[in-house]
Amino acid sequence: MKKRTFLKPLGIFFSLLIITILIGPFLVPVPPASGTVPPQQLADPDSHFVEINGLNVHYKMLGSGQPVFILLHGFGASLFSWHAVMEPLSAYGTVIAYDRPAFGLTERPLQWTGLNPYGPEGNIALLLGLMDHFGVQKAFLVGNSAGGTLSMQFALQYPQRVEALVLVDPAVYENGGLAWVRILGKTPEMQHLGPLFVRSIQKSGLDLIRTAWYAPSRLTQATWDGYTRPLKADNWDRALWDFTMASHDTGLLQHLQDFKLPILVITGDDDRIVPTADSIKLAGVLPGTELVVIPQAGHVPHEEQPAAFMQALDSFIKNTP
Prior knowledge:
This protein is of the alpha/beta class. It has helices at 2-23, 86-89, 120-133, 146-157, 179-185, 188-198, 201-212, 221-228, 236-246, 276-285, 301-304, 306-319; strands at 48-52, 55-62, 68-72, 94-98, 139-144, 162-168, 263-268, 289-294. The protein is globular, with a radius of gyration of 22 Å.
C-alpha cells in the first residue's frame, strides 16, 4: 500500500514533466523579428535581382567576356564578402557574386514546393539555374568556407559546367553540424522556438566575425555594416533556422579522388574557423591541387589580404588551360 502511495505522486510528477516538455515551448511567444524590411530596401545602387527557380536572387556583376567567375560566400556571410576582390577580378572576365538562400538580400521563403531552397540540393539547383539564366556554359567557381563545399558538390554533379575550382578555406571536413542537433531541431517544439535561438547571432555573430579575422582591428565600420545589414531583412531569422535544419552530410569526403579539374586551395595561415591544417590536408588529397597559404590572414583572406589573394589567383588563372 505504501509503495502505491509513493508511486502515485511520482507518476503525476513525470506526467506533468512530460506535458511541460511537450507543450511548454508552445507557450513561449515567438513574435516576428522587429525592425525588418523587404530585402530590396537594403540594396546597393549596383545591386540586381533576378528570379531563379522561384526565388528572387540578389546578385552583383562586373566585367565582361570570358572566363566567368562565380563567387560563393560562406555561412553567415553574403556577396559583400567579395567586395575587395570583385573589381580586380573583373579585369580577367565576367564576375558574378550572389547571395545564397538564407543570406544577404536573396528572398527567404517560409514555404516552398519541390526542392528545399536551403538544402544542399536546392543550392546546387540554384547555381545551375543562375548559370543557365546568364548563358554561362562553364565557370571558375570561387567558394569560401561552406561556399567552397557547395562549389565542390556542384563540380561533382555537373563537371562539364566547371572550368576550375578556387577553394578558399573550404569547410570540407565539417559535416554541417551535429546530427543530434538537427534531429532535435526538427521536433515541433524546436521548430517553434528555433528563430529565438537564431536571433542570438545578432550578438554572438559579432564574436564569430572577430574570430574569422587574423587582425580584428582591421574591421572598419563599413565592414561591420556590410556583415550586419542582412539581419534587417524580412524573415532572416526563420530562414537561417531552416537553412541549419536543411544541412546534412552529402558524402563529399568519399569522392575527393573523383575531381579531374584544376583546383586551387587558398587558406589564411591563422584560420580559427576552418583550421589551416584542414585546408593543407585537403590540398594534399585532391588530385593535382595547388596550395597557397596567405600570411597574416584568417578565415577570409580575400577580405583581409586582397592583394595577396589576387596574386594567387593571377598565377592560377594564367596557368589554367
